[in-house]
Automatic annotation (TrEMBL):
CDD domains: OAT_like
Cofactor needs: pyridoxal 5'-phosphate
InterPro entries cross-referenced by the UniProt entry: Aminotrans_3, Aminotrans_3_PPA_site, PyrdxlP-dep_Trfase, PyrdxlP-dep_Trfase_major, PyrdxlP-dep_Trfase_small
Protein name (record): Adenosylmethionine-8-amino-7-oxononanoate aminotransferase
Family the UniProt entry places it in: Belongs to the class-III pyridoxal-phosphate-dependent aminotransferase family.
Any one GO molecular function term: transaminase activity
A single GO cellular-component term on record: cytosol
Keywords in alphabetical order: Aminotransferase, Pyridoxal phosphate, Transferase
Gene3D superfamilies in alphabetical order: Aspartate Aminotransferase, domain 1, Type I PLP-dependent aspartate aminotransferase-like (Major domain)
Pfam families: Aminotran_3
Amino acid sequence: MGLRLRQARECSRGSMTHVFHRQLKAAMPVAAKGDGPYIVDTEGKKYIDASGGAAVSCLGHSHPRVIQAIKDQVDQIAFAHTGFFTSEPAEQLADHLVSRAPGQINHVYFVSGGSEAVEASLKLARQYFLEKGEGQRSLFIARRQSYHGNTLGALSVGGNEWRRTPFAPMLIDAEHVSPCYGYRDRQPDESDEAYGLRVADELESRLKEVGPEKVIAFVAEPVVGATAGALAPVPGYFKRIREICDKNGILLILDEVMCGMGRTGTLFACEQDGVAPDLLATAKGLGAGYMPIGAMMCTSEIYDTIRNGSGFFQHGHTYMGHPTACAAALAVQRAIEEDDLLANVRTMGDKLDAALHDRLGNHANIGDIRGRGLFRGIELVADRVSKEPLDPGLKIDGLIKREAMERGLICYPGGGTIDGKQGNHVLLAPPFIINETHVAEITEKLGDSIEAALRAAGVA
Ligand code: PMP
């Protein structure tokens, strides 16, 4: 092994390395091998991947048919720029997605990840109105508890203050309304349905205030991931949102980057809410981490308006529609259907939910256990009655992550802003291939990790 490579490997476990990730001070294990739902590091330690990284690895880490599809594609051609060519994998993947997509969604634009898919959605929505002669529209309305990506447009519609604040002077025009957060906001005497309508109607009030003719779209995650921990809407909420968008002539953009592609038990999360968007962004589970890929999908109305107008979408990236990425994603999506994995997502999702309630449901610092399918969140609180978040100074998310990694568990602790304070949850998004033994392993290790982290923080 060359000296520089050896140094790099040694450095990557310590404080000095030439690569840098988000946490500049963290010494991380080196991932060496994938084995179904497990990652094995260079020391031979095994980690059960209960969050698929950040809800990415929905087929686990060693799926033979996906690996073969990538090899086969590279043998044919690795790359052809979409300024010159389309490719068979891109065409087939688009057919696969469109034939299963909700509502009038009929066209797909491939990109390399979630932020790019959201960014492209924002720009396509703006260009749609421009081509209709409505260039006065420049505002988006989104929700406070939301994450839509880290590029500047996506960050602008995202509602997380901690992520937005450093870049505030660089962001585009976006307003934020309340999320549908029944655990925190539903009044004791209010039904789920009444709460859903009340919170959806905030969009209508905001539209009145700002003038609907200035607004391009409402942007939301059907099931909120990184900023709220698998927060699903109450029944009727999104139907009302759809009505408000239609009545006011604005578009509905659904961000299914995290919750889509089967994660909640249906291919598209919005199917369970009985709504279809005008634009839909998806990524993570689309390629399951085998290749970087995302997609923006849109209705014929939007596509035809631009095709019959300028005929050119003023936005693009070098790697969009990458044939190898599309071949990988097609193999992932076919495996999900051939192996009936959405049925497993629903069954194992119910079992995981029950196991989490058994293990943690009565814990003094667990406020809520929620989610759909294999997308589950556990919200931590200082007090179950007041629902007061834990002191952010305790940095409980870092402690949970550390305890979990020590126990060979990958989970995704995080938090959104609750009443000006950072809240805390742990997100679980294990691969669709897990069985009951994996559910038990995840639940035990997570329960132990949370308890150890709370003890280390001096809370329990
Ligand atoms: N939207 C949502 C809902 C997400 O969860 C994420 C990633 N966590 C993104 C957008 C951004 O995706 P990416 O990190 O692939 O750019």
